[in-house]
User: What shape does this take?
Amino acid sequence: MLLNCIRLFVCVLCVSYYTQFCGCQLINFRDYDTACGAESIECLRRGIRTFFFLMDSEYLGMNAIDPIILNSLTVALPDEQLSFLLRRVNVTGARWTKLAERKFNLPGGKNGVKFVSDLHVTGELTMMMSTRIDPFFAQITMDIQDVESNITYTWAGQRGFDNEDYILIGPERVAVRNARTPSFFLQTNNDEDARTMEQVLQTRSSILDHLSNEITISVMHSIVDNFRLFASKVPVKNYYKYAESN
Ligand SMILES: *[C@@H]1O[C@H](CO)[C@@H](O)[C@H](O)[C@H]1NC(C)=O
Ligand SMILES: *[C@@H]1O[C@H](CO)[C@@H](O)[C@H](O)[C@H]1NC(C)=O
Assistant: This one.
């Protein structure tokens, strides 16, 4: 039964899958020249590469993710009466996200994927302190390196009104971990303000960690939204080669 077959997918968020159970030997991402066995992480990586380029060309109405502009972010340290607002957040580098690991059949029938990214961020940072009425303001540049995103999601196969089979990707959960605190650079007209902000950021690395985690999580949700859109518009048969049901 085809849908049962789909259920066993080993699917890189719909780029490739493989299952022995249904006699499906190879996956054929037909139009894009990709065919991998599930164990072939190198092959899956090439599939992901292709997919990221499709996203960036806004194929089928997907949203480009590099650069990606995010809503404003805030971080507050109430104990210290300190808060930060990051606006006009422009993130580049997501296109080169690497596939680190692929997990199938996690508890609850979920699938999982681990990505590693290097992201470059620019934005306008405002810092508010209880000891001063005027906020501090600077342009910030941040480099987030080797940040790991652990994405898990549910999925199901479904037959559409057109009698074609599609994959539905359910809600995802994203957990991120950065290997090191991001490096940053501030630019402002007021050197003294810049020094004060720099000092605060250097002595409280949790602020940068928090900003970088929020940014990474947003980027990952955007990526999964694109996979979801793709999977809802393109019948499975167009990107997977599977055994005929009988
Ligand atoms: C975001 O940054 C990139 C690279 O610096 C730049 O090319 C692009 O124009 C920026 N986008 C916006 C909306 O500022
Ligand atoms: C990734 O997330 C899944 C589900 O939340 C969890 O089971 C797994 O241990 C996580 N892996 C890592 C490396 O964090």
